[in-house]
C-alpha cells in the first residue's frame, strides 16, 4: 500500500532569508515523488517561529499532530528538521506521538523512521544544535537593540510612531502628523477630554499609523511617549537623548504628562461628568461629601446635584440643587473675579526659569545614577555602597520631579488676557470651562435653604490662592 504523507511548511523571523512557503512545498512534493509517497495534505504556518521565545500558536502544526494521532497519514515531509522543531522538549513529544503511529519523517538531508529508530539519535543531536543556534540569534538581536538604545537610535522594525517615519537609522518628522500631535497636546493642556479629541479626529478622518480610528487609550499612550520630546527609552540603558528631532519641547511634554497622569481626571462615577460642569468641585454643606449629578428628571427634564445617602455613598442625603441655576451662579462669580487683568494674565504664566533649573537637576541626578551603576559594574563600589548611594539619588530625583509635577499641574493654557472674559466663556466649550474652574476654584459648598426657589446665598465658593 502506498504511504500517505503530509507536507509541513513554515517560515519565521528566525529564518527570514530561507525558502518561502511555496518553495518548501515544491521541494517536498519532489521528495514525495522520489520516495513514492502520496501527498494527502499540506500544513502551513506562515511567519511563526518554533522557539521557546515564540508566543504565537502554530495552528497548522497543532492540526498536523492531531491528524497524526488520528492516523490520517504515515509520513511527514519537510525541507529541514528545524522547520518542525527547535526545542528538544517539543521534538521528544512529537517523537513519542510519531512512534506510536510508526511515523516516517523525510527532509532534504535526513530520513527518520520512528518505528525502527533509524535516524532518531541524529535528529536528537540536531535539535539540540538548532536550539543553540536560536539562542545565538536572539542574543545578537538583544545586543543590537542595546547598541541602538545607547546611540539614541529608534527601535528597528515594528509600527512607526505617529508623527514620524523611519529613515536610515533615525526618525523623520511627518509635518502633517506632527501638527496633529501639537494640536492634541494643546487641547489636553486645556483639559479637553481624550474622548472629545478622538471624536473630532474620527469625524475628520484622521487615523493611526495602522489605519485604525483613534480611541482614548491609543491617544493617551501616544502622547505619553517620551520620544515626542526627543528621547529614547530602554529598560536597561534608561532614557537617553535621541538622534531625531522632537515634536514637543520638554516643557510641553512634561505638562501633557502632568495632565494625563492626574488621578482627578478619572471618572469613577456612573453619570457622565461632561453634562455636569461642577462635578468634583461642589460639596454638601452639612456632611462635606461631594454632590453628585444624576439622571434628568422624567417629568421636567431638569438636571440636579444631590448628596447621596445609599449603599456605596457616605452622604447625608439632605442637600439637593437644580444644576442650571447653581452652575450659572458659580459662573457669574467666576467671571466677576476674573475681571482683574493681572489675575487673568497670571493664569498662563509658568515659571520657565524654575522649570529649567529643575530639569537640569533631574538630568544631573539621572546621570549620577547611571555613573554609579557603571562604577558598581566595574567593581569600584560594593553592593551595599551602590544601593545606599542609589537610594539617596533616587530620593532626590523623586523630590525634584514631585516639585515639577506639582507646579505644572497648576498651569493652564486658557488665553484670557487679550479678550473679554465673558466672551471667552461663552465662546469656549465644556472642557475649556472645566479647565478654568480647575485653576481658580478650590471647592463650592452648598448650604441648606428654606425656600423652594434657588437661593444664591446658600452657595459658598472657595477660591484657590
Order of helices and strands: EHEHEHEEHEEHHHEEHEEEEHHHHHHEE
Number of separate structural domains: 4
User: Which CATH class of the largest domain?
Assistant: Alpha Beta
Going by CATH, the homologous superfamily of the largest domain would be: Resolvase, N-terminal catalytic domain
Helix percent band? 40-55%
Gyration radius from CA atoms, angstroms: 33 Å
Q: At CATH's second level, what is the architecture of the largest domain?
A: 3-Layer(aba) Sandwich
Distance between the amino and carboxyl termini: 94 Å
What topology does this entry show?
Layout: E1 4-11, H1 21-35, E2 38-46, H2 59-69, E3 75-77, H3 88-100, E4 104-106, E5 111-113, H4 120-150, E6 164-167, E7 170-173, H5 175-189, H6 194-203, H7 216-224, E8 231-234, E9 238-241, H8 250-260, E10 282-284, E11 292-293, E12 304-306, E13 320-322, H9 323-337, H10 341-346, H11 352-377, H12 383-408, H13 421-427, H14 430-440, E14 441-446, E15 459-463
Parallel strand pairs: 1-2, 1-3, 3-4, 10-14
Antiparallel strand pairs: 4-5, 6-7, 8-9, 11-12, 12-13, 14-15
Helix pairs in contact: 3-4, 5-8, 6-7, 11-12
Describe this protein's structure.
The chain has 465 residues and is of the alpha/beta class. It folds into 4 domains: 4-134, Rossmann fold (3-Layer(aba) Sandwich); 164-247, Putative Large Serine Recombinase, Chain B, Domain 2 (Hect, E3 ligase catalytic domain fold, Alpha-Beta Complex), CATH 3.90.1750.20; 273-340 and 420-463, no CATH class; 352-408. It contains 14 helices and 15 strands. The chain has helices spanning 21-35, 59-69, 88-100, 120-150, 175-189, 194-203, 216-224, 250-260, 323-337, 341-346, 352-377, 383-408, 421-427, 430-440; strands at 4-11, 38-46, 75-77, 104-106, 111-113, 164-167, 170-173, 231-234, 238-241, 282-284, 292-293, 304-306, 320-322, 441-446, 459-463. The strands form 5 sheets. A 5-stranded mixed β-sheet has the order 2-1-3-4-5, with helices on both faces. A 3-stranded mixed β-sheet has the order 10-14-15. A 3-stranded antiparallel β-sheet has the order 11-12-13. α3 packs antiparallel against α4 and α5 (175-189) packs across α8 (250-260). The radius of gyration is 33 Å and the shape is elongated.
